[in-house]
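One thing: can you check what follows?
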Amino acid sequence: MLSHDDLRSELISRLPDLATWTGGRMEGLDGGPATAVLAAGVVQLAEGNAGELGSPGLEAIVERFTRPVFLVQDGTYAPPKDSAGESETILALLAKAVTGIQAAIPSVGRVDLRNHRFGWVGTGWMVGPNVAVTNRHVAQEFATAAPNGTFGFRAAADRREVKAAIDWRREYQRPDEHVVKVDEVMWIEPDGGHDVALLHVSDTDEDGAATPHPIPLMAEAEIADTLAEWVAVIGYPEQSPYNDLLDQQRIFDGIYGVKRLAPGTIMSLNNDSGTLEHDATTLGGNSGSVLVHLASGKAVGLHFGGIEGESNQAVQASVVADLIAQHT
């Protein structure tokens, strides 16, 4: 299994390469030469002192190397043409898991809205026949509970009904669409429960193409063995006012709202709450993203939030499976 020591060793060995790759942008972060600044940052990160780095920009560049974010194009992740700043270790890890990654990618889409102040609100993915999952806080943007216990679509300011759909493509510089209507909100977990909502989607898109297949969900016993293992978060990160704007520019190259893949590891498992923590790079639009376990190709969790510089949170896939059994 790939360890953090492997990544740290590669990062240290490639400091001159990374200093050149940054195009001189590292100069002046704390007054020292680029390579020296990077080396100091690696040591601090290795010692768990990321919060004491001289510049948040340095931390972002190190994170871009150890926790990169790839564009998804033509149904697979796309390393940049100039991959000098990418970790060869992580690229090899993803290449080994490419079959499972490519199987999951088509089943993850962007939740788009009409008659709403937002054009889109997050990510959703297939978990069963005609069933997609997203977060409660995503679904609540366009749906609400009725007194009889069912769920309906919200009304816009002009009293038109808000419409929701999932576009399974939305890839950078790719014009293709695969838009499937959300025809019913099946379940929204109440406040205090898990951040989960279940959506019923149409069999076909506007052009008659079939809705993608479900991503298999990991069982509770399988999830128990995933601590420190590698996952890929697939979703639609959007620029966030809650994260450093310069760091976002460095890591995401100013490109938002399109399908991305971000590798990371499972940091902790909390079986009492049915949640887990991971360290993949995410932003707000990743709400509702899938965490694909690289070794198996199964979904290990449903991403719902995070705290910059600390960790991200996800609902365990076994909890999602239980909710599907109860409410579909």
